[in-house]
Design goal:
Number of domains: 2
Structural class: alpha/beta
CATH topology of the largest domain: Rossmann fold
CATH superfamily of the largest domain: NAD(P)-binding Rossmann-like Domain
CATH architecture of the largest domain: 3-Layer(aba) Sandwich
CATH class of the largest domain: Alpha Beta
Shape: globular
Number of helices: 11
Radius of gyration: 18 Å
Largest sheet: 6 strands, mixed
Strand order of the largest sheet: 2-1-3-5-6-4
C-alpha cells in the first residue's frame, strides 16, 4: 500500500473465536502505529454492502471463513498467488480499487517447514479438505521439489475440481487408509475441531513416522493434535500458520516487518 489504511478489520462469520485481533494489535503497538484491528462478524448477505463502506474508509484487513472466495470475486486487483488459490485472506483499498492477496500460502509453508524442516522436499502429503484452505496448502506444496499430495474430502466434486487445478502435484484418493500408508505429512484443511472435539480422521490410522499439521487452532491445542502427539507423531496446530500469515499481511499493509515475537507473545 502507498499509505496507511484508514481502518483495519477482520471479516468473517463467526469471528468470536479468532485470535487475529490479539496478534495484529500487538504488532501495531510494537510498531507505534495508531490504529486498532477489529473483528467484524458479517453474514454473506451483508458482505458486499460492508465492502462498499470499507472502500469509503480506505480500509485494509483480513478475511476468514466463509468469505475468502466472495472477496476474491469482488477484487479489482489480485496478486498472482491469490489468483492461483482462488481465495483472498488479505485485502486493502488503494485509489478506490480493492486489492487481494493470499498470505495463507506463505503461512502454511512456514508452519510446515517449522514442523518437518527439509522433509518438505519429496514430501508425500495427505490434505484433508477441498476448500480454500486446501487450495492454499496445495499452492505451497507445488513449490516444494518433488512433493506430491493426496486429497481426501467428503465432497468428491469439489475434490476433483481442486485436483484438476493442481494436477501436477495432487490427486484425489478414495481410500483414506491407502493415502496414509505412504504419508510423510497429514494436513487438516477443514474447520473440523474448531468448536468441538470432532476429529477430521482417526489419528490411529496415521503412521507414527508421519507429521500432523492441523490448520485449526484452539487455546491449549486441538483434540486431533493432542491425540497424535500422545501416539508419538510430530504434530502442530494452526497457531504457527496464523502468526506467519498475519505477519505477511502486516507487511502488505504497512511495508514493514512486524515484531513477530510481540505477536507470538500475544498468543501465549
Amino acid at each position: 500500500m502507498s499509505r496507511t489504511p484508514g481502518r483495519l478489520v477482520l471479516l468473517g462469520h463467526p469471528v468470536d473465536h479468532s485470535l487475529s485481533p490479539l496478534l495484529q494489535n500487538a504488532a501495531l503497538r510494537a510498531a507505534h502505529i495508531d490504529l486498532s484491528y477489529e473483528a467484524i462478524d458479517v453474514t454473506p448477505r451483508d458482505l458486499l454492502a460492508l465492502l462498499r463502506q470499507l472502500k469509503s474508509d480506505s480500509a485494509a484487513g483480513n478475511v476468514t471463513i466463509p468469505h475468502k472466495s466472495a472477496v476474491h470475486a469482488s477484487c479489482d486487483e489480485l496478486t498472482d498467488i491469490a489468483s492461483r488459490v482462488g481465495a483472498v485472506n488479505t485485502f486493502w483499498f488503494e485509489d478506490g480499487r480493492l486489492h487481494g492477496d493470499n498470505t495463507d500460502v506463505g503461512g502454511f509453508d512456514a508452519a510446515a517447514r517449522a514442523l518437518v524442516g527439509d522433509e518438505v522436499a519429496s514430501a508425500r502429503v495427505v490434505v484433508i479438505g477441498s476448500g480454500g484452505a486446501a487450495a492454499a496448502v496445495l499452492a505451497a506444496i507445488e513449490q516444494w521439489p518433488e512433493a506430491r499430495a493426496a486429497i481426501i474430502a467428503r465432497n468428491p466434486d469439489h475434490a476433483n475440481r481442486l485436483a484438476r487445478r493442481f494436477r501436477d502435484v495432487a490427486r484425489v484418493e478414495r481410500s483414506t487408509a491407502s493415502a496414509l500408508e505412504t504419508a510423510t505429512l497429514v494436513v487438516n484443511a477443514t474447520p473440523v475441531g474448531q468448536h468441538d472435539d470432532e476429529q477430521p480422521i482417526d489419528s490411529m490410522l496415521i503412521p507414527e513416522s508421519a507429521a500432523v499439521l492441523d490448520l485449526v487452532y484452539r487455546r491449549g491445542g486441538t483434540p486431533w493434535v493432542k491425540t497424535a502427539r500422545r501416539k508419538g507423531n510430530r504434530a502442530a496446530d494452526g497457531l504457527p500458520m496464523l502468526l506467519e500469515q498475519g505477519a505477511l499481511a502486516f507487511q502488505r499493509w504497512f511495508g514493514l516487518e512486524p515484531d513477530r515475537e510481540a505477536m507470538r507473545q500475544s498468543l501465549l
